[in-house]
C-alpha cells in the first residue's frame, strides 16, 4: 500500500469497495490527506462476529492543500489484528465505529492509540488493544523511514453475522516474497490480489522487502494475481489451510519482448516448425560460455563437431552446406578460431533463425541448413532501482565482460539530441595470444603473430514502430596468426615453415522495413564490405582471396486477402574479387594422400566480378483456421557456373487439435502436424570450376528435402516435437583422376540422409528451463554412380542432449548439460604386413587406406556444468559464472593417431576438464 | 619460463589431453630406410639416373640378410600420382627391375616429357616413379592377400611380400616398400643438399660417412669408451626423458644447398627458394625434435637447426643419423658413431 502522494492527488482519492465484512483502513498522513485503499479483510464466509477496520473518509483535499512535498510513501499494513468484540455489546446487539489516531513508528509498530470519539460498551478499549497489534511498513520520506501519525477506524457490526459459535474454525494465512526474476531482488510496490471462491477480491501492496501477507483467511482455494506493467502477469491457484501459513516466493519476469533471443528451428508461417530459446537459455547453457551461436549445437539435428572444430553440421550435411548469415547477409564465418566463440556477441543479438532443412525460398545457394543471426535494436529502456522497469526510454546501458578467452565492452543508448534514433557500439578481443606465445615458442615455433581474434559492431537505428525501421550497421571480425614452425611435422614436412592464417570481414549494412500500406510491407537490405582470406603454409600452399561483396535483398509482402499473402523478393550477390592461389593440384578424393612437401605447386591469380542473382516468390495461404500452406519458387543464377537453378518448395502445417478445442481432458493443449518438401541447390566451389584447378561447366549440387512431423503440447509448460526428415543428394560434385595434373570434376556423386529429431522441452519459467533432444540419423554418400555407398564423414547415428538450468534463489543458478553421441567415422589404415608406403623424397610414410569411413570411434559422452551468481545493486549488476566442460574428465576418443609408419595406432584424446570463469558488470 | 620447463609443461598437458606412447620416428630400433639419393633429382630426357638406397637396422643383431628390390616401370601417371602406377595396369615404360642392389641406374626415356595443360602455365615435364622394397628376410614379388577392410588403391599383383625362413609374412619392422620420384625437365636442374659434417653443442665431431660413402649399413660400433674427437655423451638416469640434460646435435649443411625454385620463378614469376629440412635418428636415447627446418622457402636460411638429445641411462655405443632433404627431391645424409659413457 505504498503510494506516492502526487499520484494519489492526480488520480483522485476516494473510498474503494470494502471486503464483504472486511476491514479498511483510512490512512491519514499528518491529518492532511487520506489515501484510500483496499484494505485487508477477513474473508466472507467466516462465521462469527464481524469486526472490521473500515476506511474512513479523508477530510483533507490534496488539491486544496498542494504539497510541494518530497516523495512520501505512506505506511502499509503488513499485519492486521482484529479486535475482540466486547461480549456485552455482542449480547446486546450493539455496533460501533471507532476512529483512532495511531502512531506508526520507524520500525512499523503502532504506539499511542487514541480514540477520536469514544463509543463506550468496551468498543474503545477493544479497538485500542487491537490497534497496538497492528504492523505496518514504515512511512518513507525521501526514502528514509519516519514515524507518522495516521488515522484508523475499526467497525464493529453484526449485520451479517450469525450467532457466535464456540467452534470457530481456525483461520489460515498466505504470504511470502515477490522477487525480480533476473536479479532475485525484492520487488516493492506491486499490487497482489487475492480472490476467494465467491469472487471477492482483497489486495495488498508489497513492501520494500517485497513481502506481502494476507492473514485471517478462511480455508479454501484462492486465486492469486499480480499484474505489473512491463512484466508478465502472474496468476495461480493457492490453497489456504486452516491453522497454517502458506509461504510463497514469487518472481516477476520482464515481458519477453525485451528479454528474448529467439532461435527458430523452423519458423511459421513460411517454414515447417519453430523452436524458441530465450536469452536466459542461450546465456546459461553449460559448455557454451554463454555464446548464443554455440548454443545451436545443443539443438536436435545438429551434430557434435569433432574436437575444437568450429563447424555446424546440420542434419548430416557437410559444414560447407550450411550457410551463415547476419541479417540476411552471408558471412564467411560465424565462429572465431576453433569455435571458441562466435563472431557476434550474444548481447547484440536479437534473434537467431535456425533452419535445419526445408527452409523457405528466402534462402538459397545452400543445401544443408541456414543460420541467420539478427542484430538487436539498441536498448534505450530505462530501469528503476534494482532493474525494475519503467515507462521511460532514453537511457544508456553499458557492459564489460571478461573471461579466460576474451574481453568485451558494449555501450548502447539514444543518440543525443534525437528522439527516435539509438545506437550501440561493441567490441571484443581475445587474449589467448598471451599464454599461447610462450607455449608455441617452446614447441619450436617462432611466433610473429600469436593467435588473436577480435570483432566489432556498430548500430545506429531509427525506430518508429514495428513496421517502420531504418538501421545502419557496421560490423566485422578478424582472426590472425603467424608462426614459423621450425619443427616440421614428421608425417609431412610440408606442414612446417612459415604459417600464416588470417580471415577478416567487415560489412556496412542498411536495413529498411516499412509498412507501405495496410496490406503491403517492404523489407530491404543493402550492404557492401570487404572480405579477406590469407593463408600460407610453407612454400607450397598460399591462398589469398579478397572480395568486395555487394548484397541486395528486398522483399515485398502483400495481403491479397486476409487468408492469403504474396511475397516477392530478390536476393543479389555481386562484387569484384581477386584470388591468388599457390597450391598443389587437388587430388582425387578417393586417392591416397601424398606428401605436401614435394608436390608441384600451381599458381593462379584471378580477378573478376561475381554475380549471383536470385528471385523468389511464395504464397502464405491459410484456407482454414487449421491449415497453412506455403508454396514457393526460387530461381538462382550464377555468372561463374552459367547454370540457373530452379527450386520449387512447399511447407504445410495443420492444427489437428487447437488449444481452444480443449480436446485433451479439457486442457488447452494443441496438436499440430507439419511437413515440407523442396529442392535446394548449391553452386560448386571456386576451385571446382576454375579452369586451372577444376573443370569449368559443372553444375550445382542438388538435393531434395522431405520432412514430416508433429508438435504436441503435453502441458502448458512442456511440449514434444517429433520430426522425420529425408534428404536426397544428387548431382553432387566429385572428382576423378584426370589425364593431366589436375583431376576431372563432375556431378557424379550422390547421397542420402534420413533421420528423426525429437525434442522434449520444458519452456522456461521462473525457476527452470531445459530439454531433452535426441536425433537418430544416417548419412551416406556415394562418390560415383558405380561406387559403394559409404558413411558420410559427419554421420552421427545417435545424438542425445539433456540439459537444464535451475535457479536456486538469491542470485544463484545451476545448470548442467549431458551429451551422448555416436563416435565419428574413421577411415582405417590397411592392416596386415603392409600398411604404408615410404615416400623417400619427403621421408614420410603414406598410409594405405582401408574402406572409407568404415570404423566408428567409441561413444562420446560428456557432462558440462555451469554455476552463475548475480549481485543486483541499486543501479548496476555484477555477475559471475563458472562453466566447467567435461566435469568428470572423460577421455573422449576423437580420432586415431599413428606412429611414423602406421604400424601402431592409438586414440587421439579430446579435451580434458576445462573450467572457465567469467565476470560481467552491466548497467 | 625456461625452454625445458615448457617442454615438461607441454608433455604434462599432452599426457592429460592426447598423447599416448607411440614408437617415435627418430628412434631406429628395427629395419629402416633412411632415403634414396638420386644423382639427379631433376633429370633430363634420355639421362641415366643413379639411385642409392640407404637402409639401416637399429637392432644390435639384425635377423639376417636384407633383400632389396628396385623397379622402374611407371612414367607420367594420371595426376602424377604414384598410386596410379600400381592400378593402371600396363606399365607406361619398359620395366627396369633390379634385385639385391642398393645402387641402381635407370634410364629415363627420351620422350619422357609431357605437355601440360596450358592453363597451368607449367613447362613440359615428366614424372618417373621408381619403386623399391627392403626385406629382412626373403623377398617375393607376387600376390598380396588383402584384409577385410582393405580397399586397395594399390594393386595386389604388383606388390612384393617379405617372409622369413618359415614362410611367415614379416611386417613393418622388417619390410619396407616405397618409391622415389624423378622429375624430368628439359632445362631445369636441382642439386642434392650438401652435408659437410656433424656437431655436438656447436663443436664438430668425427663422422662415419656422408652420402655415397655410406655403402653399408652402420653396424653397432665396437667401442667401450669415448674416443678423441668423437661423439661422447654422458648417461642420464632418467633414460632419455625430457628431464635429462639436453645435448644439442646438429648436421653441418652448406648454405649453398638452398637453391632458388626456378620452376616457380619461370612459370609464375614468384621468387622462392626450395625448402630444406633435416631428420635426426638415434638408436638409443631420445630426440626432442625429429625434424628441423633448415631453409624456409620465403624466410630463408634458419640459424639453428640442431636438435636436442636426451641420453640413455646405460653406457654403450651410440649411432646417430641425419638426413637432409629439399622440397624438390634432393637428399643427403651423414652418420656418426659415438659413445655414451657413465656419468
Write the layout of secondary structure elements.
The complex is a heterodimer of chains A (923) and B (343).
Chain A: H1 5-11, E1 26-29, E2 33-36, E3 50-53, E4 72-73, E5 76-79, H2 87-92, E6 96-104, E7 110-115, H3 123-131, E8 135-137, E9 139-141, E10 144-146, E11 148-157, E12 172-180, E13 191-195, E14 201-205, E15 211-217, E16 220-226, E17 234-240, E18 245-252, E19 262-264, H4 279-284, H5 292-295, E20 302-303, E21 313-314, E22 323-326, E23 329-330, E24 349-355, E25 370-375, E26 381-383, E27 389-393, E28 397-402, E29 406-414, E30 421-430, H6 433-442, E31 445-463, E32 468-485, E33 497-515, E34 520-537, E35 541-547, E36 550-561, E37 564-583, E38 602-612, E39 614-621, E40 627-636, E41 645-657, E42 671-682, H7 686-689, E43 701-713, E44 718-736, E45 744-762, E46 768-782, E47 790-791, E48 798-809, E49 812-821, E50 825-826, E51 836-839, E52 844-847, E53 855-856, E54 860-872, E55 877-885, E56 893-898, E57 905-909, E58 914-922
Parallel strand pairs in A: 12-18, 19-24, 22-25
Antiparallel strand pairs in A: 1-2, 3-11, 4-9, 5-8, 6-7, 6-11, 9-10, 12-15, 13-14, 13-16, 16-17, 20-21, 22-23, 24-25, 26-27, 28-29, 28-58, 29-30, 30-31, 31-32, 32-33, 33-34, 34-35, 34-36, 35-37, 36-37, 37-38, 37-39, 39-40, 40-41, 41-42, 42-43, 43-44, 44-45, 45-46, 46-47, 46-48, 48-49, 49-54, 50-53, ...
Chain B: H1 3-17, E1 31-38, E2 42-43, E3 48-57, E4 67-75, H2 82-87, E5 96-99, E6 103-107, E7 125-135, E8 138-141, E9 160-163, E10 175-185, E11 195-200, E12 203-205, E13 209-210, E14 231-234, E15 246-253, H3 262-268, E16 276-282, E17 286-287, E18 291-296, E19 300-301, E20 307-310, E21 316-326, E22 331-341
Parallel strand pairs in B: 2-10, 14-22
Antiparallel strand pairs in B: 1-3, 3-6, 4-5, 4-7, 7-10, 8-9, 11-12, 11-15, 13-22, 15-20, 16-18, 16-21, 17-20, 18-19, 21-22
Amino acid at each position: 500500500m505504498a503510494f506516492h502522494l502526487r499520484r494519489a492527488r492526480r488520480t483522485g482519492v476516494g473510498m474503494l469497495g470494502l471486503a464483504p465484512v472486511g476491514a479498511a483502513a483510512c490512512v491519514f498522513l499528518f491529518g492532511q490527506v487520506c489515501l484510500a485503499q483496499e484494505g485487508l479483510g477477513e474473508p466472507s464466509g467466516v462465521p462469527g462476529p464481524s469486526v472490521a477496520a473500515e476506511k474512513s473518509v479523508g477530510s483533507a483535499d490534496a488539491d486544496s492543500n498542494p504539497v510541494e512535498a518530497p516523495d512520501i510513501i505512506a505506511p502499509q499494513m503488513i499485519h492486521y489484528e482484529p479486535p475482540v468484540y466486547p461480549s456485552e455489546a455482542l449480547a446486546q446487539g450493539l455496533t460501533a465505529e471507532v476512529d483512532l489516531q495511531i502512531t506508526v513508528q520507524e520500525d512499523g509498530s503502532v504506539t499511542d492509540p487514541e480514540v477520536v470519539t469514544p463509543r463506550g460498551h468496551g468498543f474503545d478499549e477493544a479497538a485500542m488493544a487491537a490497534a497496538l497489534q497492528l504492523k505496518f511498513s514504515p512511512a518513507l520520506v525521501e526514502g528514509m523511514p519516519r514515524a507518522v501519525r495516521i488515522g484508523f477506524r475499526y467497525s464493529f457490526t453484526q449485520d451479517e453475522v450469525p450467532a457466535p459459535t464456540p467452534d470457530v474454525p481456525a483461520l489460515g494465512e498466505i504470504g511470502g516474497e515477490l522477487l525480480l526474476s533476473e536479479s532475485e531482488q525484492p520487488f516493492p510496490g506491486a499490487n497482489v490480489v487475492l480472490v476467494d471462491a465467491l469472487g471477492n477480491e482483497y489486495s495488498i501492496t508489497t513492501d520494500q522487502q517485497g513481502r506481502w501477507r494476507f492473514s485471517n483467511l478462511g480455508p479454501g482455494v484462492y486465486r492469486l494475481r499480480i499484474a505489473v506493467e512491463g512484466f508478465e502477469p502472474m496468476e495461480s491457484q493457492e490453497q489456504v489451510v486452516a491453522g497454517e501459513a502458506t509461504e510463497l516466493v514469487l518472481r516477476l519476469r520482464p515481458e519477453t519482448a525485451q528479454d528474448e533471443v529467439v532461435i527458430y528451428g523452423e519458423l511459421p508461417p513460411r517454414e515447417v516448425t519453430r523452436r524458441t530459446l530465450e536469452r536466459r537459455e542461450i546465456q546459461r547453457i553449460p559448455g557454451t560460455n554463454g555464446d548464443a551461436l554455440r548454443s545451436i549445437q545443443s539443438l536436435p539435428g545438429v551434430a557434435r563437431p569433432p574436437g575444437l572444430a568450429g563447424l555446424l553440421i546440420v542434419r548430416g550435411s557437410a559444414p560447407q552446406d550450411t550457410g551463415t548469415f547476419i541479417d540476411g547477409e552471408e558471412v564467411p564465418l560465424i565462429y572465431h578460431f576453433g569455435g571458441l566463440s562466435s563472431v557476434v556477441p550474444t548481447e547484440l543479438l536479437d534473434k537467431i533463425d535456425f533452419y535445419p532443412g526445408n527452409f523457405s525460398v528466402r534462402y538459397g545457394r545452400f543445401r544443408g541448413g541456414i543460420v541467420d543471426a539478427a542484430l538487436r535494436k539498441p536498448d534505450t529502456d530505462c530501469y528503476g532501482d534494482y532493474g525494475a522497469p519503467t515507462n521511460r526510454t532514453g537511457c544508456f546501458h553499458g557492459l564489460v565482460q571478461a573471461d579466460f578467452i576474451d574481453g568485451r565492452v558494449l555501450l548502447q543508448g539514444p543518440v543525443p539530441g534525437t528522439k527516435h534514433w539509438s545506437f550501440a557500439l561493441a567490441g571484443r578481443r581475445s587474449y589467448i595470444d598471451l599464454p599461447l606465445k610462450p607455449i608455441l615458442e617452446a614447441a619450436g615455433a617462432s611466433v610473429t603473430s600469436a593467435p588473436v581474434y577480435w570483432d566489432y559492431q556498430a548500430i545506429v537505428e531509427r525506430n518508429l514502430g514495428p513496421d517502420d525501421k531504418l538501421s545502419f550497421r557496421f560490423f566485422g571480425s578478424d582472426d590472425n596468426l603467424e608462426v614459423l614452425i621450425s619443427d616440421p611435422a614428421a608425417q609431412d614436412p610440408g606442414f612446417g615453415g612459415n604459417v600464416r592464417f588470417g580471415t577478416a570481414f567487415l560489412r556496412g549494412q542498411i536495413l529498411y522495413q516499412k509498412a507501405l500500406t495496410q496490406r503491403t510491407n517492404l523489407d530491404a537490405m543493402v550492404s557492401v564490405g570487404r572480405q579477406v582470406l590469407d593463408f600460407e603454409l610453407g612454400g607450397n600452399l598460399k591462398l589469398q582471396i579478397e572480395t568486395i561483396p555487394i548484397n541486395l535483398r528486398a522483399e515485398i509482402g502483400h495481403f491479397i486477402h486476409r487468408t492469403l499473402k504474396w511475397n516477392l523478393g530478390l536476393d543479389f550477390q555481386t562484387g569484384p574479387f581477386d584470388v591468388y592461389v599457390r597450391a598443389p593440384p587437388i587430388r582425387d578424393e578417393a586417392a591416397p594422400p601424398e606428401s605436401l612437401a614435394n608436390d608441384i605447386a600451381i599458381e593462379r591469380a584471378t580477378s573478376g566480378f561475381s554475380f549471383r542473382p536470385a528471385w523468389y516468390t511464395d504464397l502464405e495461404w491459410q484456407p482454414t483456421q487449421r491449415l497453412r500452406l506455403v508454396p514457393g519458387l526460387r530461381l538462382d543464377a550464377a555468372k561463374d557456373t552459367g547454370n540457373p537453378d530452379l527450386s520449387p518448395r512447399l511447407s504445410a502445417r495443420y492444427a489437428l487439435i487447437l488449444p481452444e478445442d480443449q480436446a485433451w481432458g479439457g486442457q488447452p493443449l494443441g496438436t499440430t502436424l507439419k511437413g515440407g518438401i523442396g529442392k535446394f541447390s548449391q553452386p560448386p566451389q571456386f576451385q571446382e570450376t576454375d579452369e586451372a584447378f577444376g573443370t569449368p561447366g559443372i553444375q550445382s549440387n542438388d538435393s531434395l528435402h522431405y520432412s514430416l512431423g508433429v508438435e504436441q503440447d503435453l502441458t502448458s509448460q512442456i511440449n514434444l516435437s517429433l520430426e522425420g526428415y529425408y534428404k536426397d543428394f544428387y548431382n553432387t560434385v566429385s572428382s576423378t583422376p584426370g589425364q593431366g595434373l589436375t583431376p576431372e570434376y563432375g556431378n557424379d556423386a550422390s547421397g542420402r540422409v534420413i533421420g528423426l529429431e525429437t525434442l522434449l522441452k520444458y519452456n522456461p519459467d521462473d525457476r527452470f528451463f531445459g530439454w531433452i533432444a535426441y536425433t537418430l540419423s544416417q548419412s551416406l554418400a556415394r562418390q560415383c554412380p558405380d561406387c559403394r555407398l559409404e558413411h558420410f564423414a559427419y554421420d552421427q547415428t545417435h545424438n542425445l542432449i539433456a540439459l537444464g538450468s535451475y535457479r536456486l534463489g538469491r542470485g544463484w543458478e545451476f545448470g548442467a548439460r549431458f551429451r551422448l553421441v555416436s563416435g565419428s567415422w574413421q577411415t582405417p589404415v590397411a592392416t596386415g604386413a603392409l600398411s604404408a608406403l615410404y615416400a623417400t623424397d619427403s621421408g614420410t610414410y603414406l598410409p594405405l587406406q582401408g574402406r572409407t569411413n568404415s570404423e566408428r570411434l567409441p561413444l562420446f559422452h560428456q557432462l558440462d556444468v555451469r554455476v552463475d551468481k548475480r549481485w543486483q545493486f541499486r543501479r548496476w549488476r555484477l555477475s559471475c559464472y563458472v562453466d566447467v566442460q567435461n566435469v568428470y574428465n572423460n577421455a573422449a576418443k576423437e580420432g586415431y593417431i599413428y606412429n611414423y609408419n602406421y604400424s601402431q595406432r592409438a586414440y587421439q584424446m579430446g579435451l580434458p576438464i576445462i573450467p572457465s570463469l567469467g565476470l560481467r558488470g552491466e548497467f | 619460463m625456461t625452454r625445458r620447463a615448457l617442454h615438461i609443461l607441454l608433455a604434462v598437458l599432452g599426457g592429460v589431453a592426447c598423447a599416448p606412447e607411440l614408437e617415435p620416428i627418430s628412434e631406429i630400433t628395427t629395419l629402416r630406410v633412411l632415403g634414396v639419393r638420386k644423382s639427379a633429382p631433376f633429370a633430363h630426357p634420355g639421362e641415366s639416373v643413379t639411385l642409392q638406397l640407404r637402409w639401416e637396422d637399429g637392432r644390435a643383431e639384425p635377423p639376417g640378410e636384407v633383400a632389396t628390390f628396385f623397379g622402374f616401370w611407371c612414367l607420367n601417371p594420371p595426376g602424377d600420382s604414384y598410386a596410379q602406377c600400381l592400378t593402371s595396369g600396363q606399365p607406361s615404360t619398359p620395366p627396369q627391375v633390379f634385385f639385391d642392389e642398393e645402387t641402381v641406374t635407370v634410364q629415363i626415356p627420351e620422350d619422357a616429357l609431357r605437355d601440360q595443360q596450358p592453363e597451368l602455365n607449367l613447362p613440359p615435364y615428366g614424372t618417373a616413379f621408381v619403386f623399391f622394397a627392403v626385406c629382412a628376410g626373403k623377398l617375393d614379388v607376387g600376390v598380396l592377400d588383402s584384409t577385410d577392410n582393405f580397399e586397395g588403391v594399390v594393386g595386389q599383383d604388383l606388390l612384393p611380400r617379405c617372409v622369413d625362413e618359415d614362410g611367415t609374412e614379416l611386417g613393418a619392422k622388417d619390410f619396407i616398400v616405397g618409391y622415389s620420384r624423378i622429375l624430368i625437365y628439359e632445362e631445369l636442374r636441382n642439386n642434392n643438399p650438401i652435408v659437410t659434417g656433424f656437431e655436438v653443442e656447436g663443436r664438430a665431431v668425427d663422422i662415419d660417412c656422408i652420402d655415397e660413402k655410406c655403402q653399408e649399413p652402420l653396424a653397432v660400433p665396437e667401442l667401450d669408451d669415448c674416443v678423441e674427437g668423437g661423439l661422447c655423451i654422458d648417461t642420464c638416469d632418467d633414460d632419455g626423458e625430457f628431464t635429462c640434460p639436453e645435448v644439442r646435435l646438429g648436421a653441418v649443411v652448406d648454405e649453398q644447398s638452398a637453391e632458388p625454385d626456378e620452376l616457380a620463378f619461370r612459370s609464375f614469376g614468384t621468387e622462392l627458394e626450395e625448402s630444406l629440412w633435416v631428420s635426426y635418428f638415434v638408436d638409443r636415447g631420445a630426440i626432442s625434435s625429429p625434424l628441423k627446418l633448415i631453409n624456409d622457402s620465403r624466410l630463408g636460411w634458419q640459424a639453428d637447426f640442431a636438435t636436442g638429445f636426451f641420453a640413455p641411462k646405460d653406457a654403450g655405443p651410440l649411432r646417430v643419423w641425419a638426413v637432409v632433404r629439399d622440397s624438390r627431391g634432393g637428399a643427403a645424409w651423414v652418420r656418426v658413431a659415438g659413445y655414451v659413457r657413465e656419468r
